């Protein structure tokens, strides 16, 4: 995979979530992007049990991405991160005495994939308990794995259909010891989705009922 940027896009004024998604689809198609299937990213939250008295319960996030159907990712709050096979979900059930599923906290992002030249674009609706909480856009520049070599190009491309909603450089790249010249990987992508999911968990926006 290449360098990926995941961001939240605000709902257009006077529009619903779905109407805003449709507007983004139309802009991409006007650029010449071609629809290329669908995608799904989801996240389950678990509370660690049996913590030392007085210590806050640490959270564990188990995430799946349709781009990597045979694996899943477990991210502890504040690190570390584990990449495992799909059977990790079965293991979590067996570890219920140590990790308790936070019911009602599952977040899911579903939408369409588009290809445009060397870019892969995914526009998704972020839902929680069947209620739309926001809109995500993921842009991947496939030929490059070093953010510092392609960020300006990615930003220019995103401006062509996001306008003023273009995001800043994802913090996951800036905080690495090697900075923008560390190779990007799938953990960076899922970390960005987790940041977005945690943000939208706290929001309730107009036009949020999924039909």
TrEMBL record:
It is found in: Nucleus. The keyword Transcription applies. It holds the Pfam family Med20. The keyword Cytoplasm does not apply. Keywords: Activator, Nucleus, Transcription, Transcription regulation. GO terms for molecular function: transcription coactivator activity. InterPro entries: Mediator_Med20. Its main location: nucleus. One of its GO terms (cellular component) is mediator complex. One of its GO terms (biological process) is regulation of transcription by RNA polymerase II. Belongs to the Mediator complex subunit 20 family. Component of the Mediator complex, a coactivator involved in the regulated transcription of nearly all RNA polymerase II-dependent genes. Mediator functions as a bridge to convey information from gene-specific regulatory proteins to the basal RNA polymerase II transcription machinery. Mediator is recruited to promoters by direct interactions with regulatory proteins and serves as a scaffold for the assembly of a functional preinitiation complex with RNA polymerase II and the general transcription factors. Component of the Mediator complex. This is Mediator of RNA polymerase II transcription subunit 20. It comes from Parambassis ranga.
